């Protein structure tokens, strides 16, 4: 998990809120202090941190709790909203044919990100060429050539050529019909006139659709200053923050870049060429907080060849959850692992004390088959009103399905746990609808692989 320690302490704080018996000023002060500590440890700017925690404190103490919520969930929502504010807005992004220029200082991850982007576009069915326009770094040509082979992209370079514009114009005329052209450019130790001239020169020839700035997360808040400087110099259309896997300072890098208004498009989460994720603030935050995310839920639902649409999430969250609903869900879960995935992705599950435990999920696939047989012996009325299943009915169902009464009771127990968990979603409807809104604003459909 990216930003492990930040995630751990924020989750702890939310857990504390959800376990508290009452929300009073003491608890609010404690929560605010803990968030402050967590953010500062993650290198988030001190003023931004103070501003955020002041807002949390003020809202928690002054805002009335909405009727459909409770004080605990309301406080969690406030924390969620304020944290989301500092992560910036998602930028609409679709995988489509494009000329992409990657810029950044030495060692920030340009060449690696070029390979990751190439893989991403190839997965979407595009023909991709990687263009070696870094004329500074020794071995840059070979490095990119090697990466091209790894991902199955074409490679273009002119060995020994010092004029990057010649390389780019050569590449573009040779590959004019190709879908995606990714240009790896030279870095420098610092942003200077020399680098700017080179970037301008390439941009003039390439007329890129995207100019992506690559920033190493470990530079922390400095990332903001760099983004600002580059933004003035060239029109940056998106930022990729790399190496988020290996640093505690990622919170600083993300929030500082977000504050400049430059959209963060992707994050790099490892050295491997698959380690690239689309950055959607809501999704990122809900993962960080262990809320699971609706987007994964929706993607899983699609895998089930049946949309579990917003309506059925709402219906489940409204507390009406019968054996029939359970049967319908289970019926679709023939693929191994889907059960766990679905439950992992239900918002707020991780925050519930009555979590569905892992062993239940692991055994569930075998159980589902048995349970379906048992439910086949139930009447429609029983499926609709499971509370009437007692005594004689249990014996009859067991006989009819060739199972033991203890199996039927076990099914009912599991059903009740699931129903309770669903009920717990009710107070979190506002979070659910906020997530949905966020997910709609940021285009995510291309990033579910
Ligand atoms: N852990 C981790 N390492 C990364 C990530 N992205 C890049 N790296 C590593 O960072 C180092 C530098 O990456 P490059 O892609 O060569 O950086 P560059 O910006 O092209 O560097 P120059 O060409 O020297 O300017 C390499 O060792 C990469 O493996 C990432 O997301 N996570
Ligand atoms: Mg490079």
Task: Name some characteristics of this structure.
449 residues, alpha/beta, Four Helix Bundle (Hemerythrin (Met), subunit A), Rossmann fold, 434 Repressor (Amino-terminal Domain), 3 domains, 9% strand, flat, binds guanosine-5'-triphosphate, binds magnesium ion
Describe this structure in words.
This protein is of the alpha/beta class and 449 residues long. It has 3 domains: 4-85, SRP54, nucleotide-binding domain (Four Helix Bundle (Hemerythrin (Met), subunit A)); 98-279, 3-Layer(aba) Sandwich (Rossmann fold); 294-439, Signal recognition particle, SRP54 subunit, M-domain (434 Repressor (Amino-terminal Domain), Orthogonal Bundle). It contains 20 helices and 8 strands. It has helices at residues 4-19, 25-41, 46-62, 71-85, 110-123, 140-151, 164-174, 193-206, 222-233, 250-260, 281-288, 294-303, 310-317, 323-332, 338-345, 358-376, 380-384, 391-401, 405-424, 429-441; strands at residues 98-103, 128-133, 154-156, 180-185, 210-216, 238-242, 264-268, 276-278. An 8-stranded mixed β-sheet has the order 3-2-4-1-5-6-7-8, sandwiched between helices. Helix 16 (358-376) crosses helix 18. The longest helix has 20 residues, at 405-424. It is flat, with a radius of gyration of 26 Å. It starts with a helix and ends in an 8-residue tail after the last helix. Mean pLDDT is 83; it is low at 293-309, 347-356 and 442-449. The protein binds guanosine-5'-triphosphate (GTP) and magnesium ion (MG). Residues 104, 106-112, 134, 137, 140, 187, 214, 242-243, 245-246, 268-271, 275 line the site of guanosine-5'-triphosphate.
């Amino acid at each position: 998990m990216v930003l492990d320690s930040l995630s751990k302490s924020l989750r702890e704080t939310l857990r504390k809120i959800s376990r508290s018996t009452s929300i009073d000023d003491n608890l609010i002060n404690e929560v605010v202090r803990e968030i402050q500590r967590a953010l500062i440890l993650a290198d988030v700017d001190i003023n931004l941190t103070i501003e955020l925690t002041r807002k949390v404190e003020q809202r928690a103490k002054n805002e009335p709790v909405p009727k459909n919520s409770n004080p605990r969930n309301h406080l969690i929502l406030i924390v969620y909203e304020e944290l989301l504010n500092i992560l910036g807005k998602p930028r609409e992004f679709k995988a489509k044919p494009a000329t992409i220029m990657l810029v950044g200082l030495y060692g920030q991850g340009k060449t690696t990100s070029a390979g990751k982007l190439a893989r991403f576009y190839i997965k979407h069915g595009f023909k991709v060429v990687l263009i070696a326009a870094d004329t500074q770094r020794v071995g840059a040509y070979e490095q990119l050539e090697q990466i091209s082979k790894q991902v199955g992209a074409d490679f273009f370079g002119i060995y020994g050529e010092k004029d990057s514009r010649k390389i780019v114009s050569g590449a573009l005329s040779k590959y004019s019909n190709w879908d995606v052209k990714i240009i790896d450019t030279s870095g420098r130790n610092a942003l200077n006139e020399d680098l700017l001239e080179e970037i301008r020169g390439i941009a003039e020839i390439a007329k890129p659709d995207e100019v992506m700035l690559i920033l190493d997360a470990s530079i922390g808040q400095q990332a903001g200053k760099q983004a600002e400087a580059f933004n003035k110099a060239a029109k940056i259309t998106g930022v990729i923050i790399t190496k988020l896997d290996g640093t505690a300072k990622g919170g600083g890098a993300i929030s500082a870049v977000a504050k400049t208004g430059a959209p963060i498009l992707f994050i790099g989460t490892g050295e491997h060429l698959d380690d690239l994720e689309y950055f959607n603030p809501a999704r990122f935050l809900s993962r960080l907080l262990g809320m699971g995310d609706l987007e994964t839920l929706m993607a899983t639902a699609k895998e089930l060849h049946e949309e579990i649409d917003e309506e059925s999430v709402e219906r489940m969250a409204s507390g009406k959850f019968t054996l029939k609903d359970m049967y319908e869900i289970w019926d679709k879960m023939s693929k191994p692992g889907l059960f766990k995935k679905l439950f992992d992705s239900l918002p707020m599950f991780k925050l519930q004390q009555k979590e569905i435990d892992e062993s239940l999920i692991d055994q569930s696939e075998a159980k589902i088959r048995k349970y379906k047989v048992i439910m086949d012996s139930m009447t429609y009325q029983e499926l609709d009103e499971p509370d009437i299943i007692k005594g004689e009915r249990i014996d009859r169902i067991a006989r009819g399905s060739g199972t033991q009464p203890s199996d039927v009771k076990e099914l009912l127990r599991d059903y009740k746990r699931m129903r309770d968990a669903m009920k717990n979603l009710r107070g979190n409807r506002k979070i659910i609808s906020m997530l949905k809104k966020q997910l709609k604003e940021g285009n995510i459909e291309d990033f579910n692989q």
